[in-house]
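Anyone up for a design puzzle?
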């Protein structure tokens, strides 16, 4: 059994790279960090597992000074990012790999979303519009956060082009205050919706089908009320084999590269500031832009 107790982080990394070329599950001995303040802590081991595209399995305590750890390689082919679909609108439908993902179980997503909802004072909003609602996880969390009676005082509208995802969402919410629209977000004006006082869009505006910059500007100008707020989130991560792996996926790179992400985030921030919004950028695996109107 490999003992990593006295190795530097670089030596550990090089050893992991080597053995993971051959084995799918590996185990090794480390110092018990509870009893040795110079030992690498579990946070470091979780990061190492993620950076080597592995899942950390349940550790075993061998003695007060030693622990046995297991890393299991993620199946990198098991990802909706690489899934090929016949119908574009069903890329995120009930049969897709994406559909099994539950972002609401990811602390780095959920806590950032919670903060954003608190910043826009969600309970005081009357008309909430969600673009790319899919199976309506984002509404489900609002219901849990503010409770059923406050939730029922707000009108919620969700748009998506996936028929199957919306069918699922409708079964989940029979509430009268929620409407779902199967529609192309690009032609949202045709729906003649009332202006929203909160627009939420998570993981959607960078979609290849949407011309992000002009679309964002028209959204603010035509679909948001004078005192309206926005919560936009952009993935800085990929879903691989059920795990949320940090770092934006970029075309032409086989590692995470964030230029496109930063470009889109900064565009939104600058544009919204010009329009007299107070804008914050928060989050980690999902980068949140939260914008609220500056009162004059
Ligand atoms: C990556 S998913 C994000 C879904 C959800 N907000 C979440 O984070 O779990 C993007 C969603 O936007 C929808 N979508 C993408 N482009 C669209 C378009 N042009 N019109 C309508 N829906 C679109 C997809 O069907 C999908 O449900």
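Challenge accepted. My sequence:
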């Amino acid at each position: 059994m490999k003992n990593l107790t006295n190795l530097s982080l670089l030596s550990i990394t090089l050893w992991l790279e080597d053995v993971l070329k051959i084995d799918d599950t590996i185990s090794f001995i480390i110092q018990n960090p509870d009893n040795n303040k110079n030992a690498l802590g579990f946070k470091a081991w979780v990061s190492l597992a993620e950076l080597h595209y592995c899942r950390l399995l349940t550790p075993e305590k061998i003695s007060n000074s030693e622990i046995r750890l297991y890393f299991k390689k993620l199946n990198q082919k098991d990802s909706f990012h690489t899934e090929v679909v016949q119908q574009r609108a069903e890329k995120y439908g009930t049969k897709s790999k994406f559909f099994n993902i539950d972002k609401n179980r990811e602390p780095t997503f959920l806590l950032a979303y919670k903060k954003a909802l608190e910043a826009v004072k969600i309970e005081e909003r009357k008309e909430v519009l969600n673009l790319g609602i899919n199976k309506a996880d984002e509404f489900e969390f609002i219901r849990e956060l503010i409770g059923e009676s406050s939730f029922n005082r707000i009108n919620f509208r969700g748009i998506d082009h996936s028929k199957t995802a919306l069918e699922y969402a409708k079964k989940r919410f029979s509430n009268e205050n929620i409407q779902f629209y199967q529609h192309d977000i690009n032609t949202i004006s045709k729906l003649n919706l009332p202006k929203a006082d909160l627009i939420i869009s998570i993981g959607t505006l960078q979609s290849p089908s949407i011309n992000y910059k002009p679309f964002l500007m028209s959204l603010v100008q035509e679909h948001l009320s004078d005192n309206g707020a926005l919560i936009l989130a952009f993935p800085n991560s990929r879903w691989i084999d059920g795990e949320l792996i940090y770092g934006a996926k970029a075309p032409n790179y086989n590692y995470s590269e964030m230029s496109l992400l930063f470009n889109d985030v900064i565009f939104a921030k600058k544009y919204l500031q010009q329009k007299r919004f107070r804008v914050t950028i928060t989050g980690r695996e999902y980068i949140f832009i939260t914008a609220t109107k500056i009162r004059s």
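A detail worth pointing out: Helices lie at 9-20, 42-51, 107-119, 137-146, 148-152, 163-172, 212-223, 259-274.
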